[in-house]
Amino acid sequence: MSNGARVQIREQSHEQKDKLHRDAAEKAKLNINPKLVKLISVKLKEAALDSPSFRASVNYFNSQVDQTEHWIEGLLKSLKKYPQQFNDFKEVNNVLFNQLIPDFLKDGLINQDNSVAILDTSKTNLGSLWESNTKALELKEAEITELLSEFSKNEIRHFKDFKKNFEFFQNKFDTLISKYSSQNKSKDPSALREDAFQLYEVRKSYLAASLDICVEISKLHQQLDFTFVNLAELLFKGKVSFDEKYFEKARAWSVAVSKSVKTLIDDMIYSRNQIEEATISQFTPSRDLASHNPALINPQTLINEETEPNNNNNQQSFEKHGWLFMKTTVGKPARTIWVRRWVFVKSGIFGLFSLAPSKNFVQETDKIGVLLSNIRYAPDEDRRFCFEIKTIDVTIMFQAESLEELKSWLTVFSMEKKRAIENSDSDSGKYAFGRYPPLLYEFASTSLTSIDMELTTSKAENTKDDDTQTTVVSSFLSQLVGGKEHLDFRLSGTVGDFQEPDISAPMITKMTKLSILAHAFLNSTIIPTAVTANIWGSVNWGTYYVSDHDISYKLNQPVSDSNISSLSKTHKYPDFYPQDLKTYDIQLKSLFDTSVPKDELVVLHFSCLWALNPKQELSGRCFVTTENCYFYLNSTGFVALLKKSIADLVAVDVTNEKDWEVLKVYGIEGLNMKGRIFLDDGKLIQKKLDFLINNLSKDEPKLQNEVIQILKQIETDEIKKIEKKNSIKRKNTDASVQSTSGSTQINSELYSFQPFSGVVSHNKNMKTNYNDEYHQCTVRTFDAPAKAIFHILFGDHSSILRDSIRFIDNDEYEVSPWYSKGSELIREIELKLKLSKKLFSLKNNNAGESVVQQTIEDFVDMKYYRIREDRTPLKIAMGQVLQLTKKYVIIETDTKTSKLYIYTKLDSIDPGVRSLFAPALRKTSKSFFKDEDLTMIEQIEHNVSRLGSHGKIIKAIRTFGNLSKSDEVYIPKERQVFNFTLNLMFRLYFKKFWYDLASAILCGSKLIFSYLGKILGELAMNKLILLLLGISLLFNSFLVGKSTVSFWTAKKAEHLVKDFTKELNMNKMERAIYINEIDALSSSNFNESSICFTKFMNSGNIEDYASQSVDKRFRNSRHEIAVKRNELLVELKILEKVEKELINGSWKNFLLSELNLCKKALEDLNVTNPDLEIYCSSCIEDFQKVSA
């Protein structure tokens, strides 16, 4: 539907792919650990894209439903006729039996003694046989009719309603998009925008119908399974050949699948809604008129250079998939038409997919390297948004749906060409220069348009840089398989040497089974092909989703390994590979594609209902090779691929339930996967998986041909065992049956897991009692097999001995490999002990260097191990020398437990030496070594508990190591002597100082954070109180802040006033009037001519008042008087001025009163008196002076 995904850089993580292609379906509500499995809703994804694979799959399923409906109708018609015809048949046979031996034969015609008796016996037996056979032919036609009628009436009719709705919107969408794309670019942009939104609304309806029919197809699949299981039971129930136990398991499987589907349908609907939302957002038209106006397109801005990777990673590439209209011609005379083709660009190659004329499978054209083509925008074309791809042989004109799509396609082509040029020396770059026809004619395009025929060839020659040519030639799959012209599994269930694939692929078309078969001759590829399109869809989703697997392996796989240009003409399987496994191997390769190495072959397969979590299960298939387990799950449209290395598995457990068996697969960390097996033999699968796990843990695992033979023998032995049990049951005996094995060789392969290659178990008497030879014994039983205890103690990575010996210097501890010495295996451990020379020392070695020699005296693998340990003699005080010898005996008590004996003895090497304290020191030494044994046992118990409850042997081997063996006698390495210089000592102490400082800081930080953690933990207990306390603190903080601001504002103002006042006081001016300044006013009081006065004035006591010789008190008093005099004079001046103003005011008021009287007398009363006039004139003059 969508015209392709947006341009994206393909990196290792598939989550960075296009949002439409990669993200939406993963939002389903499945509670699944992402590290375990990732679900892919392939059908919904393909429906969102409206890809050719989706259309072909829906069309093919519709035809199958029609065939099923016709078959049911024909069967119901036959069932209606069956009772009458069956009764007629019985009547005819009854008449035949009555006439078989006539009565007249008994009248003496034949021998009455024997011949008649023989005929009667034959008639009786034949009648009994006929009666039993007629009962077997009876059918429960009423129940069968009801079952099939209900299914046809309800399920098929319900599906056909959705089918009708889907076909209506599909036809409407196809018609409208063809009409919309054919619009001339000269049309008004606003009208084009309206048409785009009209197409958008129809596309939404078509998308909803497409997603709905995917959900209905999943539901109908489940109903078909349930109906046909019930039909099979009705056909055989009550018959002699009816296997009730088998059908009970089949019924349980059907119920379990139905329950699983009901849970997953809800998740599918949720995923469907998520995909619908994501898809709608992808094809929403732009409202900008410029996006609908081709006249405004600037060819220089069509390629978005910003999508180029910021880093120069040559492994990154661009890819795009989607629908384009292609210009071509058809018929004679040639008539130009535009047809829709699915185009992809990936890894420097582009190609085309199309529906076959029957519309029920996908075909392909040649794939062409981008460096062989020139891509440009085509503004001269009548249609909008066209671009041209021109190669040496053909010119192709494509039309995108929108301006955004046009930019996207041109950008992808440009970026891929640039990347291919930059990587021209790599295989990926070289393949961008080639042309590759379809490898199989059955999948080549058969369209009769001119461009399709030019793009579809059967042979191409590509020239490499060294001028060599490689030829790619198409072949018929039928010829590769067996020379038949037509391949059809329906006739015999086989084609050539291959059986019909019995697996449900993610996408099912008419050619899906042949696509799976084609993987027997094609190599894996990451490039989309018609073969993969008929299995995985047009985008080949399987290359992006494989859990627990490095995706970079697939994405960065050399293209030289791709099936683009390589096709084997003969079977690629070795001669030893069984025919029945080939079918399952090609199924594995077709599903996991590039995730499966070429040299891996399927050696085991089984079906199972895998538990994703406690509530959800998915039915699927497990393919097992000698290296890996591949799990393929497919239910209700959800597909999951999971790859697990057998090296990560430790055990397989099977428990029997009433109608199924529970298979549990354990890894090193515990339960890895869990599933239910219904119709296969769970115990047989467990034995085969256990063998494969054990085989891979060996130093030299068996080869594939050997593994296949052993697995066949295991199956043969199990069949014989079952037949023997059934035979005993038929005889109704209660005798117990001892489990037997098929052959000694197979048992040795299954149960004799040798720790050393080339060393054979001795199979001697498994002796455990050595009390007569050793002084003390420590015994303990462990909940682990004997072999696990053996590796815990003596594995290459075991540290049990080092951690048990007291006073050991851990820095000097070296273990040699095991080496042969006669019939024994020996290894030496060099270590250093920190001993007190006054009490203990090593004989002939005062440096504390000791050698521990361990010797494997005997073992029966998996059952019994005996190891002797000799240590360097120990010299105690007073000269006595003691030799310590230990013996470890490990024996199997049952399949899950074992017992360990540790024997210890101290022998005196020089018994002639006597010492008073020797007995006490000897006793102390025994106690010392007893504690050493107990410490060792405690460590073994701790390590056994870490192994878990399953796969303890494998875990022990992987944790504590195998036992490495050397063919040469071990020669100790010379010890390196370090010379400690002053400079070295200084550097060591300097580093130690910084180390101690860093340690102290870290310890302090750890202590602080631990206390903080405790405080926070305590605080978390009272969240409500803390919330109220926090609110109170915030409120109080606000008030305190406000008060603080007010206080400091007032304080600042106070300081400002004080500073201003102080400044004023500092700048204050005082005026003082001394007596000499008023001499002119009171000179009469002094006799200036007096000689005494003159002397007084000249002495400076009065005039030089600032002199230091003048008395300070006199000076201050006189200054105060002068200041006060000034103040008094100022006050007198003020009084004088006030008095003058007062008098002046009174004088002014008097003048105004007189002037008013003058006015009345002279003007109002017209008085003519000269004196009065003179008086009034005088008043006027005086008033004018006062006013001035």
Automatic annotation (TrEMBL):
It is found in: Membrane. It comes from the Eukaryota. Residues 317-418 form the PH domain. Pfam families: BAR_3, PH, VASt. The chain crosses the membrane at residues 993-1012, 1024-1041. Residues 8-22 have a biased composition (Basic and acidic residues). InterPro entries: AH/BAR_dom_sf, BAR_dom, PH-like_dom_sf, PH_domain, Sip3_PH, VASt. Keywords: Membrane, Transmembrane, Transmembrane helix. Residues 1-22 are annotated as: Disordered. Residues 773-948 form the VASt domain. One of its GO terms (cellular component) is membrane. Gene3D superfamilies: Arfaptin homology (AH) domain/BAR domain (1.20.1270.60), Pleckstrin-homology domain (PH domain)/Phosphotyrosine-binding domain (PTB) (2.30.29.30). This is Membrane protein.
